[in-house]
């Protein structure tokens, strides 16, 4: 005979999670430091260890999948503060390992982080180190020549640069290794510059761009300020335009 389920406890838990989801949506509107503090307070305020695990997992998943810029900072914070230290536990080792990998590949390019210098080969075969130390903002665009979405982003980025003339350096990084295909793509789709925006074409096929910028798929657009600090990540061209004005 199956054990009777505690209906009252189940109902209470559902109500708790519903309220948590509403609270997490409200936290989305806070600054990154404030959001991290609120999440920590929410998780630490749960006394039951099993329920605390569930609350922490739901919070992590919320910020891991949110489209609000800066949410990845909060997801990595939750992993570091609660799961990496085993204060709380995921229900599966697979999700724990995936969360660790997510934190590893995104940690260096989160909002507010100063990215480390990277060296890649330009289209003429020269080594180029960036971000540049010239007091200008940097738009870093990772793309693949085989990616349909990249094609749309490339064309829209070109239109934006030629029409708006942003005061920034554009660093276009090809993530593949087909040199012939790369040259043809640049000539046809990314052959643009303006009086205020210089364009540097680099190939990242042999570099560590995955762990530095967390690029596991393309297209990916980043905006760095004059000091090389990330102020926008995983942008579309419209969002990039708003940040630059």
What labels describe this entry?
single chain, 245 residues, alpha/beta, 7-stranded mixed beta sheet, 9 helices, 49% helix, disordered N terminus
Q: What is the averaged pLDDT score?
A: 90
How far from one another are the termini?
Answer: 67 Å
Q: What class do helices, strands and sheet pairing give?
A: alpha/beta
> Total helix count?
9
Which range best describes the helical content: under 10%, 10-25%, 25-40%, 40-55%, 55-70% or over 70%? 40-55%
H-E string: HHHHHEEEHEHEHEEH
* Major sheet: 7 strands, mixed
Largest sheet strand order? 2-1-5-4-3-6-7
Q: How many strands in all?
A: 7
Query: What's the Cα radius of gyration?
Result: 22 Å
**Spans of 5+ residues with little confidence (pLDDT < 50)?**
1-9
The proportion of strand residues reads 15-25%
Structural overview:
This protein is α/β, with parallel strands linked by helices. Helices cover 49% and strands 16% of the residues. The chain is built from nine helices and seven strands; from the N terminus they run H-H-H-H-H-E-E-E-H-E-H-E-H-E-E-H. Helix 3 (49-65) packs antiparallel against helix 4 (71-83). The longest helix is centred in the N-terminal third of the chain and has 21 residues, at 7-27. The chain is elongated, with a radius of gyration of 22 Å.
């Amino acid at each position: 005979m199956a054990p009777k389920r505690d209906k009252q406890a189940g109902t209470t838990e559902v109500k708790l999670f519903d309220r948590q989801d509403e609270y997490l949506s409200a936290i989305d509107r806070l600054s990154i430091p404030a959001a991290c503090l609120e999440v920590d307070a929410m998780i630490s305020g749960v006394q039951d260890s099993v329920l605390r695990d569930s609350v922490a997992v739901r919070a992590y998943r919320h910020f891991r999948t949110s489209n609000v810029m800066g949410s990845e900072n909060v997801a990595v914070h939750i992993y570091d503060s609660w799961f990496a230290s085993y204060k709380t536990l995921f229900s599966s080792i697979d999700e724990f390992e995936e969360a660790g990998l997510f934190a590893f590949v995104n940690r260096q390019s989160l909002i507010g982080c100063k990215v480390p210098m990277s060296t890649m080969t330009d289209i003429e075969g020269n080594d180029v180190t960036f971000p540049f130390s010239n007091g200008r903002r940097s738009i870093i665009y990772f793309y693949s020549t085989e990616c349909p979405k990249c094609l749309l982003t490339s064309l829209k980025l070109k239109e934006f640069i030629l029409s708006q003339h942003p005061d920034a350096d554009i660093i276009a990084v090809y993530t593949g290794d087909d040199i012939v295909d790369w040259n043809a793509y640049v000539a046809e789709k990314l052959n643009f510059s303006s009086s205020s925006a210089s364009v540097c074409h680099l190939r990242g096929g042999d570099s560590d761009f995955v762990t530095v910028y967390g690029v596991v798929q393309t297209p990916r657009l980043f905006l760095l300020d004059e000091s090389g600090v990330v102020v926008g990540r995983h942008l579309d061209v419209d969002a990039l335009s708003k940040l630059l004005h």
